[in-house]
Specification:
Oligomer: single chain
Order of helices and strands: EEEEEEHEHEHHEHEHEHEEHH
Number of helices: 9
Distance between the termini: 51 Å
Strand content: 25-35%
Helix content: 25-40%
Structural class: alpha/beta
Length: 281
């Protein structure tokens, strides 16, 4: 009998991946954590039945959410990562010798434990000595920080369950306060393609625009995410994601997807996405 993992992207569309075996199924205090093995995408992680990452395409997401802000900031030393229980963002941040501190606010210790055991390809990021893990709600963690971080990367789940508060006006306002004067906020911005996802894009963009002087959106192609077309948000107190790009900051030769040329092009959005975002503004 063939085994398949399926995730509904809309009531009429689903993603199905052939599975060879289930490696883990754990119910934590917050969510159901599962790891599967597949012939096409290798091992993959799901939370409450939603795809978080696969070994095959995780590098796209982690490189694009990480290298864009570091290549723009003049001298990023103190970083806060919210979520990122798989460790992939920290793996990419570890490529920069100039970074001094990486704080991680992850609400679910079980996610970290499972990823350390079954997904070492990404969880190796936790081994960097600059990483400090705080098993706390990111919303509450950032409330107590002021003028502390150069970059905040919000690698959250979708806007429901444990990740819901990370899409709120309160959270974005607290991130603004926690950032230094040249600080940058990066968040995963959902997909613009399906109607329900597009509503989230509009809502999130409107809230970030109200909190930050500069707010831009960029894109990447991630095959296992809904529609494959995924957005990220870049917000700052003044730095522009393209005009202030510093190619010398980028990690030359250490990426598979990101490059400074791609960085520039990623901010050139399709017309339907531009129109969607301008309506929110």
């Amino acid at each position: 009998m063939e085994l398949w993992f399926s995730e509904m992207h809309t009531p009429n569309v689903k993603l199905s991946i052939k599975v060879t075996r289930q490696l883990c199924c754990v119910q934590s205090k917050f969510q159901r954590i599962e790891v599967f093995e597949s012939p096409e995408f290798g091992r993959f992680l799901t939370l409450d039945g939603f795809m978080m990452l696969t070994e095959r395409d995780e590098f796209i997401y982690h490189e694009m959410i990480t290298h864009v802000p570091v290549a723009v900031h003049p001298q990023a030393e103190n970083i806060l990562v919210v979520g990122a229980g798989d460790g992939g963002v920290m793996r990419e941040l570890a490529k920069y010798s100039g970074i001094k501190k990486i704080d991680v606010a992850e609400i679910d210790a079980e996610v970290v434990r499972v990823c350390r055991e079954f997904l070492p390809q990404t969880a190796c990021g936790f081994d960097d000595p600059r990483v400090n893990i705080f098993y706390e709600d990111g919303l509450k963690f950032v409330r107590n920080r002021e003028n502390e971080y150069d970059i905040i990367i919000v690698d959250s789940t979708d806007p429901f369950g444990p990740g819901e508060g990370l899409f709120s006006m309160e959270f974005y306002g607290n991130c603004f306060r926690a950032l230094r004067d040249d600080g940058i906020l990066i968040n995963q911005h959902e997909s613009p393609f399906y109607d329900k996802d597009a509503q989230t894009v509009r809502r999130v963009h409107k809230r970030i625009v109200q909190s930050f002087e500069v707010s831009r959106v960029y894109q990447a192609h991630i095959p296992t995410y809904p529609s494959g077309h995924w957005l990220f948000g870049f917000a700052s107190k003044g730095l522009h994601p393209v005009r202030d790009l510093k190619p010398e900051n980028a990690v030359a030769g250490k990426t598979r997807y990101y490059s400074t040329n791609l960085h520039k092009g990623a901010f050139l959005l399709p017309v339907y996405v531009e129109e969607m975002l301008s309506e929110s503004e």
